[in-house]
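Worked problem 6 (solution included).
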Amino acid sequence: MPLGERQGDKSESRYCGVETDFNDDMPHVLAFNLSSGGFDFVIAPLMDPAYRPSLVQKGSAGSGVPPFAGSDLVMSPSQWSSHVVGKISSWIDLDSEDETIRMDSETTLKQEIAWASHLSLQACLLPAPKGTSCGNYARCVNQILQGLSNMQLWLRIPLVKPDDDSADGKNDTLVDSWETWNSFRLLCEHHSLLSVALDILGTLPSANSLGRWFGESVRAAIINTEAFLTNARGYPCLSKRHQRLVTGFFNHSIQIIISGKSVHPQANVAADASQNHSDEGLQRHALRPYLDYVGYLYQKMDPLPEQERFELGYRDFLQSPLQPLMDNLEAQTYETFEKDAMKYIQYQRAVSKALLDRVPDEEAFTKTTVLMVVGAGRGPLVRASLQAAEETGRKLKVFAVEKNPNAVVTLHALVKLEGWEDSVTIVSSDMRHWNAPEKADILVSELLGSFGDNELSPECLDGAQRFLKEDGISIPSSYTSFLQPVTASKLHNDIKAHKDLVHFETAYVVKIHNVARLAPTQPVFTFTHPKHSDKESNQRYKKLQFVIPNDTGSAMVHGFTGYFDATLYKDVHLGIEPSTATPNMFSWFAIFFPLRTPICLSPGSNLDVHFWRCCGPTKVWYEWSVTSPTSSPIHNTNGRSYWVGL
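Solution. The predicted structure is:
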């Protein structure tokens, strides 16, 4: 049964598994671990661990029938599929110097995977590579992956990394296990069916080092009973750092698996006492106290906020950015944006402050401020501006300029419904071509994209600036884009699945979730309105150098996430840059710029990135490249794959 109920959480991390020993009575294994133990699935060996193909007598009776753990007839297909993850024999070593072991390993691996496919298992757990070299192991697994359609292969990787946080002083003998995983997945070309099952040990590497894994395709975390501490009552518990890590796993749909023998005597005594008093003498599972503790950690998590629940379906889902000048938005898109109350609260605050600065109290009843909403949509900024005027006691004359004829119909209906005919004039026109009858005191727009300028706010406001007074106010008054290198294995695989160049040279809007942020964000391009010089170009170029913290270890960069922060007016800001993000706002997800070939960074190395914003007569586009530690091609040259039309 699931670990518990958490409002809004339907992810796989609700289910907890247990690693079992070989047993050819699979119905008993399931009954004991699921019914008595309360676990949701088992990691069970598929083959007798004593089996070696080279020891099978050729020509003997029964040869060719490997000693599997029960036939497919002993349980229903749904039981095999839903409750069993196949555990590939842990003795196999495909990179052994001994040819017999190597050949036996290859034969056994292929037999067990074929059997798992026959049983329609959803996943198999591959043993961890035995040494630093895993070339032959990866080759065999890659061959197998080419023939699989949906079964996942989880590569077991111990969570170790030599760093200053290690208290055992054995740094010289440890290797960074991320390096092992990275080597293996590169050999298998980032195959989407190859994932990680992390072995969680008693000591953990640094927080930066752990953070890398949340951008990788980690499916399971195997916690050995030896990693648990003992509380005052003799029951198992985890250190604070382990607790935070497990909570992170829950939040990233990573399933917990309990492994090993019970090492908590008091918990075993309680288990025995419970067993003695049970009705039918059912044996109580020795690992039940560990499961109960993991369930406790799950249940004490806060429920998912309403906004997170709304965004669940968008997590790590690639969307093409809007083309607001080329295309007219649909009613559904407008409606989604209009539900973002926080955004319009901030706009109303900005307009209120601008009105108070513009009109002193003694002129409040005599002076009328001209405010133009450029890109009025279906009227949310018109409403926010009029509410600001009412709040401050200032008189307002509003021009609502909108190029989408369908939205203009809605605007007229809104003005009539609200009785705004005397204060609002609707203009059906592109702001860049409209000849205003008078100049505005305040120009209000919501033309910002996820990267600030990526929906052509600079070009639109340049066109509208001619009808703003010399001392007029633009809301927003400025905005800056930000960039950050990330590990994003899922996004990379989703783009790679298209098998073309265009998708690797396109920027995507994404609700990023399963990513590892490798360095703090850095500012890229800034635009200020109104412009002080007509000669100032909207083309931009910026070189950035990101420093990856030393204790992170090696890391893989799949691309860059982009954000923005805007100053609406004075101290009123709006943005999605993580360190200053406006809370409870959902109008914008981050933007993702992929790299055609992911770049591997060594510990403490620098990452040099170049970004260009290019302008042509009919379009605006971005180009980007990496020049250190290695050089990448310049992406999207001349906007050949992705652009925003003027």
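Discussion: The chain has three domains: 16-53+71-162+174-263+284-303, 331-446, 481-645.
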